[in-house]
Design brief:
about 500 residues; globular; Rossmann fold; VC0802-like; 18 helices; alpha/beta; Oxidized Rhodanese, domain 1; 19 strands
């Protein structure tokens, strides 16, 4: 299968050296994210378009490849194409007719041709010649230049003709590795997940920092969101997940800080801790999911007081987004089901939170705070590669049974997102397979037969291990993980 990769338009207006650097990085990223699906993939091109050639033939295999490309920052569009040595004008028509003829029956159409290189004809000449031929020789409903039923897409690039079979929109943005790194303060909710995604899309290598306010279930859920974002959008790069135990900080705030000032003080403590993390990681910016006036701590005055505690740049990608826009984007990128099932843990709730924090008052309150507690939390921070979070939970829980075979009576539960099921259906002739998305496992598993052994399945084995560990922690012993070799 051959794909033409169209670049995000902002890449094409960069200076020549910058543009070449961005394209070189994008080639590298594409190879990295597709290598798992096809270790023979070829990525070529160095200026205005890339060609991706895979050895895969099966429809489900190529669906998985296009799904990876759709989620790779820097790509504006993915064109599935057939490539031919450039023939004469009649040859262009015949090749186009061979592919589009049946698709045009009783349909209006328009021919669109893009051309690169030197040729004795113009793009419009191709459109007129091919369009006239299709109208005469195919059973169409005629040419319609505006909003046709079918757009016949052709590209002439130097000595080759590309017939576009399918055009799929890409993610856009800049290739990862072309911008600096950031540390995203992630809680797993709608806001921090979406703000992390927006940074990834802009080409920022995004690491994650979680403040554990008390609760293993919450930490598990947040790690799962971060793992999902990494696997889908930036698996081309190594990413760290940092977990900072903040229970002691919360307790100190509850005991020492005036009720109305607690929310602002907590955010200042988080920024201090985040700042300490990035100094050891050589990162220059923190990212939060805050949006102006969404909650009491996010008024302009409060945000100013919160930011004043550190000199580090704080990015807020959602600062002027409303909640429904954020939820809609979470649904689009796939984090909505994670975020709406994040366990609630409201550690610091003020009855009358201030919306107009005053620096001198906050500083006086913080004089009562024992900063040794914060220092202890920072020293206890755990740094992991995102791929190591699974092992973390396996260590916390009893050992999760992992098997490559299904024995008689076992039932397999495919926990992947419904979108992944549609792209790459999974079945086993020797076993019953249930489809229960990860976000329904907590509620649905309690209704299953307690005398049956269940094996969780996902493509990489990461999500299934996390959920198996979680279910074991909840007291279920009839659970394991199915990991199949070359399951992709």
């Amino acid at each position: 299968m051959l794909y033409l990769i169209k670049l995000f338009p902002e890449i094409t207006i960069k200076s020549r050296p910058v543009r070449r650097r961005f394209i070189r990085q994008l080639r590298k990223n594409i190879r990295e994210v597709l290598r798992e699906l096809d270790d023979e993939v070829k990525v070529t091109g160095d200026w205005d378009v890339l060609e991706v050639e895979t050895s895969k033939k099966a429809e489900n295999e190529n669906s998985a490849i296009t799904n990876r490309l759709k989620s790779t920052p820097g790509i504006a569009a993915i064109l599935s194409v057939d490539r031919h040595p450039l023939p004469d004008m009649d040859g262009i028509f015949q090749l186009t007719r061979n592919f589009y003829g049946e698709l045009l029956k009783s349909k209006t159409f328009a021919v669109r041709c893009k051309r690169t290189g030197k040729h004795p004809f113009r793009s419009v000449d191709v459109e007129e010649y091919v369009g006239g031929g299709l109208k005469r020789h195919c059973d169409t409903a005629g040419v319609k230049l505006k909003n046709p039923d079918v757009s016949v897409l052709l590209e002439v690039r130097d000595n080759f003709l590309y017939i576009v079979k399918q055009q799929i929109p890409g993610l856009g943005g800049f290739p990862l590795g072309c911008q600096d790194a950031v540390l995203s303060l992630i809680s797993g909710g709608f806001d921090s997940s979406v703000s992390s995604y927006l940074c990834i899309k802009r080409g920022l290598q995004t690491h994650y920092c979680f403040f554990n306010l008390g609760g293993k279930a919450h930490e598990l859920a947040v790690k799962e969101v971060a793992l999902f974002l990494w696997m889908k959008y930036h698996s081309s790069h190594r990413v760290k997940f940092i977990s900072i135990p903040f229970e002691g900080v919360v307790e100190e705030i509850l005991n020492k800080i005036a009720d109305s000032q607690m929310g602002v003080v907590l955010k200042r403590m988080m920024l201090r801790a985040g700042d300490a993390m990035i100094k050891t990681m050589h990162i220059d910016a923190l990212v939060t999911g805050e949006s102006v006036a969404q909650v009491s701590s996010q008024t302009l005055l409060n945000l100013s007081v919160i930011d004043s505690v550190i000199d580090t740049l704080v990015l807020r990608p959602l600062c002027v987004s409303d909640k429904q826009e954020i939820i809609d984007l979470a649904r689009e990128i796939g984090t909505e089901d994670f975020s709406k099932n994040i366990p609630e843990y409201c550690a610091v709730i003020s009855k009358n939170p201030t919306t107009k924090a005053k620096p001198e008052k906050i500083e006086n309150e913080e004089k009562l705070f024992d900063f040794n507690v914060l220092e202890d939390a920072i020293k206890s921070a755990r740094h992991q590669l995102i791929t190591e979070v699974v092992e973390d939970f396996n260590n916390i829980s009893t050992e999760v049974k992992i098997t490559g075979e299904v024995t008689r009576g076992d039932v397999v539960i495919d926990i992947r997102h419904p979108n992944d099921l549609e792209i790459s259906p999974f079945s086993l002739p020797e076993a019953e397979v249930l489809n229960i998305p990860f976000y329904k496992l907590r509620s649905d598993f309690s209704e299953l037969d307690k005398n049956t052994q269940y094996l969780l399945y996902c493509e990489k084995g990461m999500m299934s291990r996390l959920h198996a560990a979680h279910l074991q922690d909840a007291g279920y012993s009839n659970i394991g993980v199915l990991e199949l070799k070359n399951s992709n």
